[in-house]
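Section 5.1 Outputs to date
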Amino acid sequence: MGHLEERLENDLNEIRDQVALMADEVDKAISDAIYAFQHCDVKLANNTVLSDLPINRSSRRIDRLCHAFIALHLPSAGHLRLLSSVIRANIILERIGDYAVTIAREAIQLDCALGGHLARELERVSGEVRLVLSQAITGFNNLNADMARGAIGLANQLETNMDSVYVELMENEDASQVKSLMITLITFTQLKRVADQAKNLSEETIFAATGETKTAKVYRILFVDEDNSCLSQMAGAIAKKAFPESGQYDSAGRTAASVVNPDMKDFLASLSIDLGSAKPTQVETTRQDLANYHVIVSLQGAIKDLIEADIPFRTAVLEWDVGDIPEADDSPAYEALYSEIAMQVRELMILLRGEEAA
């Protein structure tokens, strides 16, 4: 094998390896979303929502590799057909990741887990869906046409079985309301997808016409605690110093203390972080105020104990266990607290923006 042929095979294998890795991420996202829905696991659901960001970055990476491969190697019919399939598969996997996010967001809205016959049907259908997805992924990774045909057969059978679930929902005691809600939900979902695709198309148009790439997203994050005197203030200050271009950061408390913790303020000042005239504030709990944030982070217990209002559908919630507020003049304890919060902030921003977070 010559040098050019070896380079081509290495580049092609890299693309296939990246697709396999992304497929694993998507498979895990679907699995986690289904589990969260079945068990009302809000923590897992929120983590699943945020874990879609690395999946999106994997999709963009694969897209760049495919276009670079085509430009460099000018592939012949066989390789070009494979690259075409990879590009479409990349889009499909990314969309499946989005479906996992939707399931996870619905899980967050549940008051309690499903019970009875519908719970058993959910268990059956979700198991079949995961089987079909797993077989389809394996078939694609191995370019196994027979396995792919088998997956298609399973999917067709699943579609037929789903009819009975829809019939049962329609035969609910309040069938007219269920039907109306389902139709409304489906309609709005389709409209939202159309808008999303129109936005994507517009971004592609801008890139084709000007060469401008999509501007990195700036995430709005709210840190909350009991009274906004210490932990949330420190988290906001750390985030502003370490990642000023990646996010907009606010802090608030369930109630508002009279003053910011002076020991914490002095400790941050020793690290050249000046809180200035910062004052504790109480969290605004209207849906519109909360909807302004992509992520809300609790630093003192469950978010429901700090914010009684319903969390908006597209806002993710995290609960960090960073420890207690140190006693006065306990510098080592403040150093440990600072290190813990800084680590959590860094992990969050890398999850949201990737290694290029700044």
